[in-house]
């Protein structure tokens, strides 16, 4: 079983690429759109002339970031990713900052990918139009259900659609270039329209223009999201892990860059006009096209142009694009709980999120992620453009912090490293990371400056909330730890109670009661008595009679209950024992039904549960549940085990 | 403490009347409206000429019903009410039918009373208009909060508003009669309008007319809701309980009847025109008044006419009416959980609803009631007229069944009763109950016939669902009971395990662990070992080292955990012990933190909890929680106790 798992899950490069790249690659489905429509605010000409330059800058940044992360992969093969790098080199606060950013980003990855996927589907299947938000939520629900059921992601499941997507996009690009060269590349449907500038953007001064270009650029940086995925997944690679991871990273970068540039160039050649507010900005013969006009995604328009003579291609592109976007969203469903468990390990999130091997721990994470993402999709009506505004800031927060951390890392090692060759390598790495830090830092500033009012502010706020929440949790755990530590030489906690006073709670005489009595007797306590609460006198006397008839060798004591309560009389009685002989240990045996369905749980054990809870507050009292397995409970246990999401990227 | 309670809560008649009558009396706030607007469907004249006759019939029915219930009160002083009468005399199915009807009715009592109260408030405070539903939900929320906090209803709290209400309404009536006699009773504002028949009601044939009259009558029967309250509350009365209860019932009936008739007569004298669809039915000079016209409740219009020269009176009436309607709703908040606990006692609802003395049990009931009522208020937009359609059917189902039950009751007793005087009394009672049964049965048929399509159908459906749900729960409990009964002479369940194998789970060495070890050792098991799960090897070896350093006198065993799980390795190990020596008892000691806040609960004990749950499925294993009370847990216990709703009417 275990070895199978290992065999199944350690990934060769050709599987690792699709598993970790889907997020990064999928952004080619919306990044170009964002560049075009932002430039388009100032009218069609700017978009046509500047888009490819903007794209080039984005590509440059991407190259640098990928170079930098190749260093991370080598230096931190453990899979802690940015969080680990930041924590180790810049301290827990920095790590927590990165963590908050990543958590927010996972939510946005789902929201953006799904929204984009839905918009994409709409350009192929008209009936989706107008119901984007609903469809989006449904897709999220399906993903959630799948991940809750614990379907283990298999490399293959990722490989097929991802490679199909690469093939489709690059195939489209090649075919487009070919038609361009052979001079029969048709124009996009929107080419016949003119793109009027948005109000207030008609005459832009140099500064305003620069600002707009920067805004377009930072929108385009959406293409970089998901680049860090591999650095979190090194353990999942086959040996030599770091080398393979680094290579895969490079591969992924190259492909992403190629796709992005091709899309932008094709969009230009086919004269795509893409507007943020199509109804008013797009003019046909000088007249706004109005609300009836439906604006396809750039990918959609380009494919329709390139495959003008081959409609199947259009549908294919749109389908695989939709698929990879869903996969991208799914990576978040895997990453979020994993990061959660790392944070839990460090005491920043509830401990149980760390516990492996049961799905419950991860279910919470999955549900939180899904809920938050669905909320965003509804609030922003599945509008990618508006969601993007929140998106990129988190990515670059973690990029920047982690790159700064890497520089620190190399500084530390350089202090001890003697071997000149090694020093040379470290120097080089340090330069690369330094450049990476500077560049991503700059981009972060640009993003903040250009997008803060457009929504990035919300993302920052969310991060802050998470940051302080996690800090508070950690503080709580520390407080408890201090409260529980035993001073050296302090032995009073090892003192044995003098006697054991055992009490078996009895409601009526049935198998669970008899078992409880037998178990209690087996522990040979100093005192053993059965206890019942006299709620209905006649019932009690009946019980007493049967007790004697069966001559059960344990005395039965009945507590009066003026208000027909059960809990309080028992608690009071136990307390009285404690006060009479404080050094005794009181053990209360409570028979408990083990049932098979949640609704049966509602029908049983409630008063036992309440009693447990109440007794726990009394020191010197121990509560023992004596389980009785009802027939319905059979087989339930097996259903409790099952695969857990994120195994693949954890390399388990 | 206990005696105080008793003193505080056993009710003299003058307090019992307001406590139990608020529901019945409050219906005068909406019953007349329903009669008028139903008749009004056929135009103004019918309403003017027939309303008081309809009211008379309602009064007649009420008299009969009250006479009948005086018999119940004497025969069943235990407070089981209709449910008990039906179960005892007609069997559990009949009882369950009544129970379903009552549960549905409690929900409707809240919905109708609150909605009517809000409509009433609207006629005094204009700003409420248009937000009825919202205001209604808010009021329900407030009531819920109060009842959840466990405010004990005190007789006084009921007495003041109820007596104020009686005083206000009867005072208004007397003043109105006086002005009428002295000939200066002004007309209502709507008197100047004409009331046009609703489409389709212009020319009613004899049959249709009769049907309409019946419909008006069954709407008017809303006045009877809450009459049975006293028969559920006999134990709360001072001795002689039954006599006092019967007298109070009579008193209540007289007052209710007086109020109802006065309202109807005053409405006629002041020429109130009241329409179901005021905008189109009410004409000013032949033209519909339209949506701008706001139609006050009958109570509102009458008070404005009677107190034309004394506006304060109008406000007063409207305020006390609002108050008593809220009180009426509150009675449901007390009755619903009480009935729930009786049903739970009989195994028709989850057992824990029966457990007294902790608020949790009742909280569930309160929340369910509030949720359902709020839903109705929202769905029906706080429209009393539409809610009434669902309301009355439940009342008369329970009236009818319980009266039939009473007849059976007397038959049974007559078989054994010898004393002629006694027989005579029983005969008389039987006649009364027989009449009661026949009459309420007839009304029930009328209600069903006239209202089924208008909404009574939904009520019936809801009752059916509850009926079968409760039947299913009972079946489940019976199945479990059979599964657990020990055959006479079957002693194998008393067999003692041969040895006790104790296992203490250890994560790290702190006070809770040491306490668990001490407790485990105190029980002197045959075998005792400490168990830890090796998730992080270095942590484990550190633990082992400290273990030896502190020379803890218990061997520490470390289980390997390939997947960094905690639960499964332990479960597997325990099972292996069971298989090696099946006759041993395995006791697993789990240290558990006792915390003070729910959110701390989220941060602790989760893996312990999971482990407990898993181990419970293995027979021959007993799980002992060894509590460690964290500082934050202090004082929590006290907060757990508190008064419980419905105490007053249970006479506790």
What's the short version?
2 copies of one chain form a homodimer. The first copy, chain A, is an alpha/beta fold.
How are the elements arranged and paired?
The structure is a homodimer of 652-residue chains.
Chain A: H1 2-9, H2 13-26, H3 31-40, H4 44-75, H5 81-90, H6 92-124, H7 132-148, H8 155-181, E1 194-195, H9 206-220, H10 229-232, H11 241-269, H12 278-281, E2 282-284, E3 287-288, H13 298-306, H14 311-345, H15 359-379, H16 384-416, H17 420-451, H18 456-484, E4 500-505, H19 511-522, E5 527-534, H20 537-549, E6 556-560, H21 567-580, E7 585-594, H22 598-603, H23 606-616, E8 621-629, H24 636-640, H25 647-650
Parallel strand pairs in A: 4-5, 4-7, 5-6, 7-8
Antiparallel strand pairs in A: 1-2, 2-3
Main location (chains A, B): membrane
Transmembrane segments (chains A, B): 52-69, 90-114, 126-146, 158-178, 248-269, 310-339, 360-382, 388-410, 431-449, 455-473
Protein name (chains A, B): APC family permease
Describe what this molecule looks like in 3D.
- Chains A, B: It comes from Phycicoccus sonneratiae.
- Chains A, B: It is found in: Membrane.
- Chains A, B: InterPro entries: AA/rel_permease1, APC_K+_Transporter.
- Chains A, B: Keywords: Membrane, Transmembrane, Transmembrane helix.
- 2 copies of one chain form a homodimer.
- By secondary structure, chain A is an alpha/beta fold.
- The first copy, chain A, folds into 2 domains: 8-477, Amino acid/polyamine transporter I (Up-down Bundle), CATH 1.20.1740; 497-639, HUPs (Rossmann fold), CATH 3.40.50.
- Helices cover 65% and strands 7% of the residues of chain A.
- The first copy, chain A, has helices spanning 2-9, 13-26, 31-40, 44-75, 81-90, 92-124, 132-148, 155-181, 206-220, 229-232, 241-269, 278-281, 298-306, 311-345, 359-379, 384-416, 420-451, 456-484, 511-522, 537-549, 567-580, 598-603, 606-616, 636-640, 647-650; strands at residues 194-195, 282-284, 287-288, 500-505, 527-534, 556-560, 585-594, 621-629.
- In chain A, the strands form 2 sheets. In chain A, strands 6-5-4-7-8 form a 5-stranded parallel sheet, with helices on both faces. In chain A, strands 1-2-3 form a 3-stranded antiparallel sheet.
- In chain A, strand 5 (527-534), helix 20 (537-549) and strand 6 (556-560) form a beta-alpha-beta unit.
- In chain A, helix 7 crosses helix 14, helix 8 crosses helix 14 and helix 21 (567-580) runs parallel beside helix 23 (606-616).
- Chain A is elongated and about 105 Å long.
- The N and C termini of chain A lie close together (12 Å).
- At the A-B interface, helix 18, helix 19, strand 7, helix 22 and helix 23 of A face helix 17, helix 18, strand 7, helix 21 and helix 22 of B.
- Strand 8 (621-629) of chain A pairs antiparallel with strand 8 (621-629) of chain B, so a sheet runs across the interface.
